[in-house]
Each structure stands twice: as structure tokens, then as C-alpha cells.
Amino acid sequence: MAVLTVQNLCYGYAKGTPFEKAVLHDVCCTFGEGEIVAVIGHTGSGKSTLLQHLNGLLKPDSGDVLLDGESIYRSKAALRECRFRVGMCFQYPEQQLFESTVRDDIAFGPKNQKLAADEIDRRVKESLAYVGLRESYADKSPFDLSGGEKRRVAIAGVLAMEPEVLILDEPSAGLDPAGKKALLKLITDYHAQTGSTVIFVSHDMDDVAEIADRVLVLSKGRAVMSGTTREVFARADELLEMGLGLPEATSVMLRLRHEGLDVPTDVFTAEEAAAALLAFARKGAGV
Predict the structure, then answer these.
(1) Which three-class secondary structure state does DSSP give residue 212?
(2) According to the model, what pLDDT value does residue 52 have?
(3) Which residues 6+ apart lie within 8 Å of 213 measured at CB?
(4) What's the CA angle centered on 44, arms 43 and 45, to 5 degrees?
(5) Contact call for residues 165 and 196 (beta carbons, < 8 A)
(6) Which residues contact 254 (CB under 8 A, 6 or more apart)?
(7) If you placed Cys at 22, which of 12, 149, 154, 225 could pair as Cys (CB 3.0 to 4.6 Å)?
(8) Helix, strand, or coil here: 27?
(9) Full pLDDT tens readout for the chain, 287 residues
(10) Bridge partners, residue 234, by sequence
């Protein structure tokens, strides 16, 4: 069942000026209940612009965005409701921190939802737990935290609104391998515990292969491909033609095939590659 539906969406910047630029062209796509969907595309393909339409931060020049089958733009009340139900984490979300304490920063969204004090307190505590921070962090200044901790607090502020749809724009950007691994686990753990729909943009195809159920590909402002992660990465030649990368495991297997080894190329994770190479070695040894 589709939670969000994008219908024939068109959008451009600086309309009516010499700098006018069309960014999205007749984009149609859906995001299903409980899915983890990766949105990929080269720089300038319209990924971030599309995401900002999904909770009404931008309004299309034409087309529509439906939440549970109804336009999010139908009224001011509907738009306000959408922004609580569809939570957005921008790239480098730690730059969104502004309150004097972690508690106040996380509580900002729930307060705007006009929730009772005890409910706000519950959400602050649960959100800290979701992102792997102790309750003692609540009274600290967010500006005294490490970069990774700041990012967790910023994400906790979105989770505290308990969105049905969580949107993350390049969530692992700028993180070291350990930080990236921890963040991906945070996303998958949250998804498993809540059943929320998760939509994320990434340039890292290994991240996409690891956690996404489905992939939407944008190119020059158009939705050009959509399918399961396996279906999309199986179209390696098309992705490469668009200037996109592949999971490292896929690239390795393609190079081995090019060298004449009869190995499968529909391999997208390190675990799959290891299993495929072991099977190849056993076959060669006659085991």
C-alpha cells in the first residue's frame, strides 16, 4: 500500500528570471508502507528537490503529492499535518541544532505538536535511546558534543515527532566508516522497531545495497528506473551510462567476469560475493 504518491510533479527554480531552471520533469513514483527506499542519481538530478516536496517544504509548479491518497496541499491544516507525519532530516542535520540543551532541541517538534509535558518527556527519552545516547545527554549543550553525537541528536529531534515516514538526505555524508556503520544500524533498527517507511538519498551504493528494499533512480530531473534493489543493480550498464556507481562487490565480480572467470555478476554485497567466490573455487576444485 502506498503511503506517499507523487503524481506528474514538475518544479523549477527562479521562475520568470534569467536564471530559471527546470529541476523536476513529470516525476511519478510511490513509496510503500514499511519500505526502505533509496533515491539515487548523479549530482543535480533532482533528488533533494524531490524529497523537499514529500513533506511540503516545496510546492510543485504542477502535479501533486498524496499522503494516504489525499493531497498534502489541499489546505494549510493538511500541510501542517503532513510535516509532522513525514519527518525530514537534511544533509548534515547537526547544522539544524539551535537550542541550549539536547532535551530542548529534541522536544522542539513535539512541543509544536502541542503534546502534554509527560508525553514530550517520554518521546525525548525514547528518541535518545533510538539513536544510542544515554539519558544523561539530555541536559548537555548540543554544541559541546562530537560531530557524530550532534548528528544523532538532530535525528532524534525528528524521531521524537514519531513520523510515519522518515526522510534522510545523505545521512552518512562526512562520517568515517565506523560512524557510517553505526548510522545505518540506527536506521534499520528504527525501521524494525516502528515499521515506519524510510526514504533516503545516498551516493554510496554499498549503503544502498545493504539496507534498501527498493531503489528509485533519477536522471536529469526524471524518474527513469524503479524496482527492488536487486532489479535495479542488475541493470549495471544503464547505471554506469548515467554516471552512477555500483556496489563494490558488483564491480569486483564484473571485473572478474571481464578477465574470463565464470562468476555471477548479480552480486551486490560482500557476503554474496564471498559465497559466490567460494562456490566458484569449489567448482574449480571439483568439490
Answers:
(1) coil
(2) 96
(3) 35, 36, 37, 228, 229
(4) 95
(5) yes
(6) 236, 246, 265
(7) 12
(8) strand
(9) 899 999 999 999 888 888 888 999 999 999 999 999 999 999 999 999 999 999 999 999 999 999 999 999 999 999 999 999 999 998 888 888 889 999 999 999 999 999 999 999 999 999 999 998 999 999 999 999 988 889 899 999 999 999 999 999 998 888 888 888 888 999 999 999 999 999 999 999 999 999 999 999 999 999 999 999 999 999 999 999 999 999 999 999 999 998 998 899 889 988 999 999 998 888 876 54
(10) none
For 196, list phi and psi in degrees, rounded to 5.
-65, 155
- Identity at 143, one-letter amino acid code: F
DSSP state of 247: -
**Which amino acid belongs to residue 51?**
L
User: For residue 260, which amino acid is it?
Assistant: G
Count of Cβ atoms closer than 10 Å to residue 2 Cβ: 16
Please, where are the H alpha helices in 91-176? 102-112, 117-130, 147-159
| Domains (range + CATH), the chain | 2-246 (3.40.50.300), 247-287 (no CATH)
Give yes or no for a contact between 72 and 82, defined as CB atoms under 8 angstroms apart: yes
Q: Are 94 and 175 in contact (CB under 8 A)?
A: no
Residue 14, pLDDT score: 84
* Helix axis angle, 117-130 to 102-112, nearest 10°: 120
Question: Distance between CA atoms of 93 and 154, rounded to whole angstroms?
Answer: 6
Which three cell numbers mark 196? Answer: 515506519
Residue 138's CB is within 10 A of a number of other CB atoms, namely 19
Q: How many residues does the chain have?
A: 287
Q: Which sign does the torsion angle of CA 57, 58, 59, 64 carry?
A: negative
Pairing of strands 36-40, 214-219: parallel
d(CA 94, CA 154): 5
Question: What burial class does residue 79 get, using C-beta atoms within 10 Å of its C-beta: 0-12 exposed, 13-18 middle, 19+ buried?
Answer: middle
Q: All 3 cell numbers of residue 125? A: 527519552
